[in-house]
Amino acid sequence: KVKVKEVKPDTLMTKSTILGWIIVAVVGISALFSGLITGATAIVEEKDYGTLHRILASPITGWELLLGKTFGVLFSVAISGVVAALVGAYVGAKVSFNFLELEDWMAIVMLALATLFFTGLGLILSIVVKTAKAASGLAMAIAFPMMFTSGIWWPPREMLPEPLKTFASYNPATLAIDAARAVLVFNEGLDVIVQNLPIIAVGTVLIYVIGAIVYKMVLKKHALM
Q1: CA-to-CA distance for 108 and 26, rounded, in angstroms?
Q2: Angle 173-75-176 (CA atoms, 0-180°, nearest 5)?
Q3: How far apart are CA 63 and CA 70, in angstroms?
Q4: Per-residue pLDDT of the chain (225 residues; tens, 9 = 90+)
Q5: What is the pLDDT of residue 225?
Q6: What is the spatial distance between Cα 80 and Cα 98, in angstroms, rounded to a whole number?
Q7: Which of 74, 102, 123, 215 can pair with 39 through a Cys bridge, CB separation 3.0 to 4.6 Å?
Q8: Model pTM?
Q9: Torsion of CA 179, 153, 171, 33, to 10 degrees
Q10: Residues 6+ apart with CB under 8 A from 120
């Protein structure tokens, strides 16, 4: 009484989901480059422009300056995300956002945390640079390899060689962008975010706090010069 029926699995990756995967990856790349470059040049750029001592002489504190630059990066990435989403909609990419769904808002939070992670990493790099040009060059030298070895762009994390796969599996930014992609493109639930949230949150906070401490040290050093 056994019935045999031939079935074919549904295609997980269609043209629209592939395009959607790329759209979210573009936002991740924007966060990577904007965060690293802004963090690395946060102080030396003001010094090169001759505005650092003027800023320090004003009522603005160093922490307020850092906060302003951080919000500037977040705003820049947000604009990039909106533009990427509009282009994606035009070319038929599957990127859905429901204002009433908590997981969709959490996906946006994931992209913001990835941006903060890269900004903190850029701030850490600022300790070894003396000019804005050198800072930008160092940020680029790190950003391009990371783009292809972290699963943010291509290949996906699952296709990386084993050592790089391990690195990507514990990289807060990679996990955050993957979680956002899973929700916005593949309509997965909140659990895909919750399961990696501890690594994403702790890793991001740790890197950004270390970056902020380095920023304060470098700011003090340049202020005395």
Answers
A1: 14
A2: 15
A3: 10
A4: 787 766 655 545 788 999 999 999 999 999 999 999 999 999 888 888 888 878 877 888 888 889 999 999 999 999 999 999 999 999 999 999 999 999 999 999 999 999 999 999 999 999 998 888 999 999 999 999 999 999 898 888 888 888 888 989 999 999 999 999 999 999 999 999 999 999 999 999 999 999 999 999 988 887 655
A5: 58
A6: 19
A7: 123
A8: 0.90
A9: -110
A10: 35, 39, 204, 207, 208, 209, 210, 211, 212
**Residue 43: what residue type?**
I
Place of tokens 């493109």: 185
CA 31 from centroid of its chain's CA atoms: 4
Q: Which helix (H) or strand (E) holds 203?
A: helix 197-223
119 burial class (0-12, 13-18, 19+ CB within 10 angstroms)? buried
DSSP 57-96: HSS--HHHHHHHHHHHHHHHHHHHHHHHHHHHHHHT----
Specify the residue for token string 């990435």: 77
For 51-82, b/e burial (b = at least 16 CB within 10 A) is ebeebbeeeeebeebbeebbeebbebbbebbe
Pair of tokens at residue 43:
């102080």
Compute the distance between CA of residue 208 and CA of residue 120 in angstroms, rounded to an integer. Answer: 4
